[in-house]
């Protein structure tokens, strides 16, 4: 009888404890981390020392009864006010770890992207101090130039993941998207590979201030390539200047030859100049069918598009030179080209 009574009492006490609230400290929520190799016994004993788990033997008994004791997921967990012991147990078994997020922005270059990744405190940093080539080697693509190869997006991760994990996911996401979109491209584009489309998309990304203009800007660049005209786009010049760019671009910068100076060289630059988003890639693969050959910034993020050099020069005088006539890059350079 005594055994039956004691057993019944223990069972009732066990059931009651599992549905009781966790006695969290005043500074709740409480975050704790489950490290690789941690056992359930170690976890509950550590929390018992903090006063959070009052009856660790009941939690261990639950693990034996359910067979879930080995289903503990590594990561960080957050205990909130009002949580019951059952909630804590289910959270462990289901791996409801804290999720962090990192957003890679369209238009960032590789250096800017790496700065964002390497200053994210929850990521394990494995690439600090490494060259671009070694970083690419770490994700299995040492033969690839890194610029533009990563998909701009928001990536969720848990503590314990590394910068290499994020880079690998972003690289694979871009590769997959390009592979999916390339067969759907418009006919007769002036580039022959997905990589050339990526280069074009990066230029469109950097030139676009108004999203609705992406397709038109891509159409302008496609028209210029097809006519043998130089692209003459400032973002490529700026990229080629590297650390010498101080926020202003001068006429002598447009004349200084680099592999990325599309005022001095024809065709596409050798690599992308930034990380394009999906919309810019779509525009590069589906440019607007237009007769425009030029565009100039209005100063509000939008552009004025022109079909001929004379109209473009007038637009430059109006929007860039505030009505003052003086020599400028497209006026001088385009006269010397096949325009």
TrEMBL record:
Reaction(s) the record says it catalyses: a peptidoglycan chain = a peptidoglycan chain with N-acetyl-1,6-anhydromuramyl-[peptide] at the reducing end + a peptidoglycan chain with N-acetylglucosamine at the non-reducing end
Enzyme class: lyase
GO molecular function: lytic endotransglycosylase activity
Pfam family, one: YceG
Site (Important for catalytic activity): 207
PANTHER family xrefs: ENDOLYTIC MUREIN TRANSGLYCOSYLASE
Protein name per the record: Endolytic murein transglycosylase
Lineage: Bacteria, Pseudomonadati, Pseudomonadota, Gammaproteobacteria, Thiohalomonadales
Gene name per UniProt: mltG
